[in-house]
Specification:
The complex is a heterodimer of chains A (265) and B (277).
Chain A (H helix, E strand, L loop, with lengths): L1 H23 L1 H28 L2 E2 L2 E2 H35 L2 H6 L4 H6 L8 H18 L5 H31 L6 H9 L11 H10 L2 H13 L4 H28 L6
Antiparallel strand pairs in A: 1-2
Chain B lengths: L1 H4 L3 H25 L1 H9 L3 H12 L10 H18 L3 H11 L2 H6 L4 H10 L1 H20 L8 H27 L7 H15 L11 H7 L9 H7 L5 H37 L1
Helix pairs in contact in B: 2-8, 4-5, 5-9, 5-13, 6-10, 10-11, 10-13, 10-14
The chains are: A mainly alpha (265), B mainly alpha (277).
């Protein structure tokens, strides 16, 4: 219990540091926030073009697909605001050797690097995504049922765990392949495919996006839950999948950390 | 290049030509040193594949405009091909050099830094071409009859268009990269450029499937001449005559960007000198 309180205080300190940094470069961060809204608009363009030609694609109507896009953008804002900045921090630390300072601190290293950086301005992006979700349900003509909403929120937790675990796996890779600045670009570019319902993909891509890089669990399933279309079997699958990924990620992180030899030695 | 404007052109060109092979060799060595980076960067180019999957699912129930399933496959493969071959990292290199001052030693060398950079980036092209060769094979087997293999004129235009696209993108990156001497967030500006390019070059969606006024506007903007135009010509969506016309437009955009690049570079250099003290 004391440990927990200790870590809660650590988290507060880390967040305060990020906030101070963000306020220091406020013009830049405000620009980034505005850019995120710009990208959200660009995300919507292919969707609008496709649905100007067809009533439904792979069994998804326009408002339903919009729910997936909205959900995807919510996750992406969390990714951009809370995950990617820390990822860049670690990758840079590995290259410069400054990660050693983090590892020397008397706290769990995974916790420290995971909370190293936040970008508070991403809240703009988050609100924009929520607006898309609200509009999608407005088009559908009904709000999600309370039960479905609960399942959706639970799956949101699962999606966050998945996202975080994948990220930890990527960081572990950066220990081995040092010169990989582009790693976060790669991560985001693959994640981008999550804006489409999984039913759009066939064959190998579908398998990859369900099992290897489980985009389906992160965006399609939660959207289905909100729409009240998710079977309980799928929900259970998503839950166990998320937990399994988290366990694997923690294991790989421990292994990678043991094999980590700093850039300076 | 500055001297080129002052009329000592021939000597400069001879000078550059003498140094160029060595610069290319350095670039190639650099490329092989960072091969893992190249592969990771290639993997980030997965958007066309996702769009291909999406549109082939859409076109299952019948063609969309002139696009059936095969056309979509050919289009996005072509996109991937052109994007990988014509891409470069100039904007990242330039902003970094300006910000941390490593541009200074480059300025001491008896060759314009942009020439040196062009050699570094050009050296990556053969390796990029080798890496995309499997895509060419897939393209050949899915849409062989659409490729200009038996039309030397169109083939020549395609090659020229891809070369032109490379130069145009290089110059645009030079312009935005040089802006780093003035503003902190030159890379954010480039992000905006990429966003606009994704829509207006046909990278996300073929231009002719966008609303007509957007497609018309795109013809008067540089974006299409970086991706959409070479791809449309490659897979035979554009007639040889209109492709020839577009090649001229592309040349105009290149000339315009070259003028802007040189002017901006000179102005920025004065500022940069002030930077270093």
């Amino acid at each position: 219990m004391r440990r927990l309180r200790h870590y809660a205080r650590l988290l507060a300190v880390q967040m305060r540091t990020s906030l101070t940094l963000a306020v220091q470069y406020r013009f830049d961060f405000f620009l980034e926030g505005a850019l995120a809204l710009f990208w959200l608009a660009i995300t919507l363009i292919p969707l609008l073009v496709v649905y100007s030609r067809r009533e439904s694609v792979a069994g998804w109507s326009f408002p339903e697909a919009l729910v997936v896009v909205g959900w995807f953008s919510v996750l992406k804002s969390v990714l951009d605001g809370g995950v990617t900045p820390s990822l860049n921090f670690v990758v840079e630390g590995v290259r410069k050797g400054t990660l050693d300072f983090v590892l020397l601190k008397p706290a769990d290293a995974q916790f420290l690097v995971s909370t190293a950086r936040f970008e508070p301005w991403r809240i703009l992006d988050f609100l924009g995504s929520i607006a898309v979700l609200v509009y999608a349900f407005h088009r559908l003509g009904h709000a999600p049922r309370a039960g479905d909403l609960m399942v959706g929120l639970a799956l949101f937790g699962v999606a966050l765990i998945l996202l975080y675990s994948l990220w930890i796996l990527v960081v572990s890779v950066s220990f081995r392949v040092v010169k990989v600045d582009n790693l976060s670009y790669l991560f985001i570019s693959i994640f981008d495919a999550g804006r489409w319902p999984i039913d759009v993909f066939k064959g190998a891509l579908r398998l990859i996006f369900t099992v290897v890089f489980p985009l389906a669990l992160m965006t399609t399933y939660p959207a289905q839950a909100l729409l009240g279309k998710l079977t309980s079997a799928h929900a259970l699958l998503a839950g166990t999948g998320g937990l399994a990924f988290a366990a694997i990620a923690r294991f790989v992180w421990k292994r990678a950390l043991r094999a980590y030899t700093s850039a300076s030695s | 290049m500055n001297r080129l404007l002052r009329g000592e052109g021939l000597r400069t060109v001879r000078h550059v030509l003498r140094a160029y092979p060595a610069l290319l060799r350095v670039g190639l060595a650099d490329m092989f040193a960072y091969r893992a980076e190249l592969v990771v960067w290639l993997l980030t180019m997965n958007m066309p594949l996702v769009m291909m999957a999406l549109w082939t699912a859409v076109a299952k129930s019948g063609p969309v405009g002139r696009f059936g399933q095969r056309e979509f496959v050919a289009y996005y493969l072509g996109m991937l091909l052109v994007r990988i071959i014509t891409g470069s990292w100039l904007v990242w290199e330039l902003t970094m050099e300006i910000r941390n001052g490593t541009l200074a030693p480059r300025l001491l060398r008896p060759i314009h830094p942009l020439w040196a950079h062009s050699a570094m980036q050009l050296a990556a092209v053969p390796l990029r071409a080798i890496l995309v060769s499997p895509l060419v094979l897939v393209l050949y087997f899915t849409a062989g009859e659409r490729l200009p293999l038996h039309e030397p004129a169109r083939l020549a235009i395609v090659v020229a268009a891809i070369a032109g696209a490379w130069i145009l993108l290089f110059l645009i990156m030079a312009i935005i990269g040089t802006l780093a001497a003035y503003v902190e967030s030159a890379l954010s500006i480039f992000d905006v450029w990429l966003g606009a390019q994704a829509v207006l070059s046909g990278y996300l969606v073929p231009l002719e499937l966008l609303p007509p006024w957007v497609a018309r506007t795109a013809r008067y903007l540089p974006f299409r001449y970086i991706l959409g135009f070479p791809v449309e010509t490659l897979i035979g969506l554009e007639s040889t005559t209109s492709a020839l016309h577009d090649l001229g437009v592309q040349a105009l955009f290149i000339a315009g960007s070259l003028v802007v690049t040189l002017a901006l570079w000179r102005a920025a250099l004065k500022r940069f000198a002030a930077f270093g003290g």
